[in-house]
Here is the input.
Amino acid sequence: MPLTTLEIVSILVAIAAAFGWISVRWLKLPITVGTMLLTVVVSLALSALGGLHPPLHSFTVRLVHRIDLRSLILQGMLPLLLFAGAFLLDLDELARQKIPVALFAVCGTIATIFLIAGLMAILSGNRVPWIQCLIFGALISPTDPIAVLEMLRRTGVPNAIRAQLAGESLFNDGIGAVFFLTMISIASGNAPTPVHVAGLLLLESGGGIAIGIAAAWVTSQLMRHVNAYQVDILLSLSLALGGYVLAEIAGVSSPLEAVAAGIALRHFNRTFPGESISRDDVDAFWKVIDEVQNSLLFVLLGLEIVAIPLNFHTVRAGVAAVFSVTAVRFVVVLLLLSLIRWFKFGHRSSAAILTWGGLRGGLSIALALSVPDGMGRSWMVGATYLVIVFSIVIQGASMDRLVRWRRMRRAVRKSPKASPAPTQNSQT
Here is the structure.
């Protein structure tokens, strides 16, 4: 008997609640990190011990295959998560970091795509076609805004670096998506020119941003003329969902529309003085939406391991991908920080935090699942999943320790050296 939608949602919420409780009560881990770690461990255990209790293993497999993860992320969770992340940003700090954000989101993403593709081709011994390496580079290069923003909310990352990581993760999706679609088109036998790719990038990005700003202005005007937090919340919710749908209908970047709408609505609302808009209630609503959806998303990602073909080839590709993504991220961060400091003397940032904070998440696996069969889909899905697990469980969980270590080092460097105690001769 197939599972109903209500049964699936009930099971996912129950898993998220139970594993979240265990994470906080016993493991002392961040909720999302502990939730995904426990889900992965339990899923692996069910797969390994499936012969001991076949009905339970069969039920888990049916549950996972019943969920269309790609559609659920791209058409279900992503609009709300992107809007919430952008709406809750510190706009003043984001404005101060606009140059680093632009460089990381555009130049950094493009450079990362080709460097990861080249490194993956080398590590595979040139057994993987170059076009497949480029497809993988395009889907894994953008840092994931969902994972990054969740990590930033629970760690003590300095405000400037927080704005750089958040801004980059919110704006680099459009670049990665256009390159991803371009590489898929080339692999299918088409050959778009560089001018066509640049025009597509400008059209999709500019169109998405324009729709987001326009829809946010209309929504903000409507919010201004009522004094009811319920209406303000419904208007912001309709903007998050409706604007995303409008962008998809118009054929422009819907992720960038959601980001632009969230930032623009926050900006427009700040221009209205007084209590004409229920700011605190709206903020609280979006914080709850963001945190609950993040927990559910990481449960889904943990369960997905049951459906992913993990064999020697995909594990080897995954190990190569983890190394490639981390190494390339470090090199690109160093190069861009050097460029930024050359133009802006005295700019302070941390290559270690920017490298370790470039997490990958649900968006990458959604793109990997959309790769057509025959283009390396199997190894890409497996490699992407292992990169995501490494990002969330290892990088995300250890970010607090990295920040504390960096602060301790800075404190040691700044502390004055203890002067030697005066000797008897010096006193006479």
